[in-house]
Amino acid sequence: MIQGYSLASVSIFGVLILFFLILDLFSHRQDRPISLKNAGLWSMVWVAVSLAFAAYLAQSQGSDKASLFLAGYFLEKSLSVDNLFVFMAIFASFSIKDRYQHRILYFGIVGALVLRFIFIGLGTSLLLLGQWVLIMFGLFVLWSAWQMYKQMGKEDGEIEDYTSHWSVRFVKKFLPVYPRLDGHKFFTHQNAKWCATPLLLCLVVIEVADIMFAFDSVPAVIAITNDQFLVYTSNIFAILGLRSMYFLLSAAKRYLCHLEKAVIGILVFIGLKMLLHVSEVFHISPNASLAVVGVLLTTGIVASIFFPVAEGGSNV
After folding, report:
1. For a surface tag, which of 190, 232, 300, 313 has the fewest beta carbons within 10 Å of its beta carbon?
2. Strand 187-190 vs strand 193-196: parallel, antiparallel, or unpaired?
3. SS3 at position 282
4. What CA–CA distance (Å, rounded) separates 194 from 176?
5. pTM of the model
6. Per-residue pLDDT reduced to its tens digit, 180-190
């Protein structure tokens, strides 16, 4: 994957990622919701780091390599916008409070570093497998939208006992699961044995979602360049930035009362888009997809500003 690149190029990429991941973890070591200001700051940090790496590539490898990196970076970023809304649906499904979401996404990033490396190493050989996988994931996204719709407007309480949750019912057939949260722990020691907590199950679902989206986005980037180092680095910088952007969306949701409706509409669109693409009935271009997502988000934001909901749930 690194053939043709100097040890310095690989080392600089690794050091940048490691340094800012450690800084990110240190900055968010306490379990508390990410503020809008903090989310915006970290989103800008990852964009700046990505552009700085592109500038280094231009200086050390030439402008062609830097251009290919940026093309892959922006394409992956645009194709991965869907991830933000699916992550929100997954957290809603598990009733994971804002204070734990950064921890889950942080370790999700660590997993993505490894899984994307494997995925890109296998390359287009996964395309055939990806067809039926995307069908199943498209249906899952539609199901997630339906679950969010059913919960909309209800009291936003935590689940205390996950015994009847679909993830616990499935995983406990194979692994011991403790059906309650134990702070921010992924494992807990109960009844003289180590058990997975619902937080770990949510992390696994987040990782699976990232892999599912990789079936769609990675081949598109490979079509731009088959340089695996550029594909990998552009992927990693893009998904790191997008996961920071997730907290912008999550923080905004606390203040914009109709944004959840827009997110549900976007999830329906994402699910249908995936099914249409796999069935080859109709292909929605990345630009058209971004336009639809942008219109739905803007509608939710504008509606929240001009038609706020008063206490008690009635419009004012």
Report:
1. 313
2. antiparallel
3. coil
4. 7
5. 0.82
6. 999 899 999 88
Alpha helices in the chain (DSSP H): 7-27, 36-60, 63-79, 81-94, 98-122, 127-151, 166-171, 198-224, 228-255, 259-279, 286-306
The token duo for 40 is 């915006």
Rounded CA separation 239/11 (Å): 20
Q: What pLDDT, on a 0 to 100 scale, did the predictor assign at position 163?
A: 87
Cα 174 from Cα 293, distance rounded (Å): 38
Domain spans in the chain, listed from the N-terminal domain onward: 7-306
SS3 194: strand
Does residue 133 contact residue 212 with C-beta atoms inside 8 Å? Answer: yes
Q: How far is CA 288 from the centre of its chain?
A: 20
The per-residue pLDDT for range 157-171, each reduced to its tens digit, is 567 789 888 888 889
Q: Are 190 and 78 in contact (CB under 8 A)?
A: no
Residue with tokens 């093309």: 71
CB 239 within 8 A of CB 83: yes
